[in-house]
Amino acid sequence: MPTLLRIDTSARINDSHSRALADELQARWQAANPGGVVQQRDLATTPIGPIENETIVGYYTPADDMTEALRQATAESDALIAELQAADALLISTPMYNFTVPAVLKAWIDQVVRIHKTFGFNEAGEALGLVKDKPAYITTAIGAQFSGTPLASMDFLRPYLQALLGFIGFEDVSCFSVESTAVDEKQFAKSKENAVTEIERLFAKVAA
User: Fold this and answer.
1) Percent of the chain at pLDDT above 70?
2) Total of domains in the chain
3) By residue range, what is the domain housing residue 146?
4) Global pTM?
5) What's the per-residue H, E or C state across 33-54?
6) What's the half-sphere exposure (Cβ side, CA atoms, 13 Å) at 108?
7) What's the mean per-residue pLDDT of the chain?
8) 3-state class (DSSP) for residue 139
9) Mean pLDDT calculated for residue range 3-14
10) Element at 136 (helix H, strand E)
11) What pairs with residue 6 in β-bridges?
12) CATH value at residue 137
């Protein structure tokens, strides 16, 4: 049965707009995949440890040369990558914190974006993504209005995540956002309506 790996990152648990939008998307995914399983990882309540010196050494050490200390240092990365590779689809819900991703999401990224595991290089030195044949969905919540305003140039959240997921092999990355969550109730309501409509439209195509 298909599996959706859901990664939540907002420090807000009950009043998170990025989580609420992810709930909308998850419901559509489950409707399109009867019997599908949602595997949820909440980085706010169960954060990932940061990479350390031994972690990086382990990333670049050939398998035959790994010591027990290096295996322990990369064990969390191994588990997270296996979880990602086993899933049929990925859903990341995230707010924008200071123009980019929350620290807990960056910690997850540092553990799963790993040479020879989720990306590599061909003989010409070109990067190759190793996470194949699965879609990725991103739901974001942004306190101010960025789209169509001068603040758009400071959006390092959505372009970063889309580029990063593409780098490790995702060819189908869809991003849905609510904006103005902290400054304009009407703009926020409109952006949420638009985002939900876009989600419905996407899964209507999947079902067609």
Assistant:
1) 99
2) 1
3) 3-207
4) 0.95
5) CCCCEEEEEECCCCCCCCCCHH
6) 23
7) 96
8) strand
9) 97
10) strand 136-141
11) 40, 91
12) 3.40.50.360
